[in-house]
Each structure stands twice: as structure tokens, then as C-alpha cells.
Amino acid sequence: MPQINAAAALQISMLLFALPAQYFISQWYGTDSAKRSQITERIIASWSISTRSYFSLDAWADCLKLWLSKTRTCLYVELLILHFRNWYYGENKTKSGDNAAKPRSYLAASTHVHSPKPEYIKFRVGQVIIHRRFGYSGVIVGWDVKANTPEEQLQPRYPPVKQDLKDTPHYRILINKANGFGKSTAYVSEEEITVIMGLEVVHHPDMETYFSGYDGSKYIMQPWLKKLYPHD
């Protein structure tokens, strides 16, 4: 990743300051002291919000995601954003002796090809499911052969009596908005869900990104997703 030295940082700061400064100068002259005070306060507030947005990774990522949703661009790019966020916030660790950290994705968001598919993976991407305990419906958009979450999340998720569930298949679910469950996605073990037939309509803003239609038994994967799960 390129390093930003002091000179480059100063140049960026000057560029960011140029627009509010120009506005400040144009508005300052020709007004009385009360109006100048109000204008100054507005500029300071605007500047504070702008700088937080310029230097926030989440803000830039949210802007890109908004653009992607408007253009219906493949969610593959969004998965790359997830990889970058994992790296940026230090969720990836460098193994002893490695020269560089290896990217790792969690919660069935990996972009590696899932082939061959183990026979013990019961369900397929595109199938509609219902959660046995919470009752919400949704559609599968990815799976892992076992729980793939940051280590600090595994312990509270699986108490001692359920430790064996960590080594069972897990699925990423787009939750049907019609259920009013309050969450948009879920990551659940295989024993927590069951496939249901005859429920074609799953309402979720990302459905068209993952799927192109419904064939009567499951949703049809978009080409980019089919490449990741060729046997589903």
C-alpha cells in the first residue's frame, strides 16, 4: 500500500480546504457581523462533516455500495470491499514467518471456488429455507464446510454444550423482508434450517444481485455466483 508522506498529506489538506475557503471568502464580504457569524458556523459544520466523510473508509464503501445498487453491478465487487475491510481493520493475521498477511473472508463470503462439494453439504445456493427456531424464511447465498467466523465470535455463539456445531456446515442467508425479522442476513448452522418448497417470493434488496430468476424449486444463480458454487 503506498505511503503518504508529510508533503503529500499537506497537499491533500490544502485541496480539501480550498473549496470551503473559497466559499467563505465569497460570502464574508458585503455582509454584517451577524450574518458573517452565521456563515462561519455553517462553514465549520460543513467542513467537519466533509472531513469525516473524506477520511472514513466506511463512508467511501457505503458510497460505492450505493452506486453498485443503482447500477445493479455484480456483488462480486462488494465482496472485494469486504475483503479490504477485513484487512484494513486487522482481522487478518500474519502467520509466523510469512512475508505478508493472507486475506481471509468470513461468514460464507469467500470468493474462492467451492469445488469439489463435500457430500455432507445438504443444501444448495438458491434454495429457500425456514429457520427452525425463529421461523423466518430466506434464501441461501453461500456456505462453508464449517463455521467460519472470527475466533472471538465463536465462543459466545457456541457454548460448551454446542461446541460440536462449529464443525458442521454453515450457510449465509438473505432473510425474507416480509417476515419483519429485523435483520437482513444470517449465518446459521445446518441443523438450524430446513428447506421449504413452494415459496417462490423472497423479498430482499439484494435478490437480483445474486439471482436471475426462479425455476420452480430454487432460485437461479447469477453467472458470477455460479462460478463460485459450480455444483449447486
TrEMBL record:
Entry protein name: FBX21 protein
Gene name per UniProt: Fbxo21_1
Residue intervals of the Hemimethylated DNA-binding domain: 120-222
Molecular-function annotations in GO: DNA binding
InterPro entries, per the entry: Clp_protease_adapter_ClpF, Hemimethylated_DNA-bd_dom, Hemimethylated_DNA-bd_sf
UniProt signal peptide: 1-18
Keywords noted in UniProt: Signal
Record SMART domains: YccV-like
Keyword Signal among UniProt keywords: yes
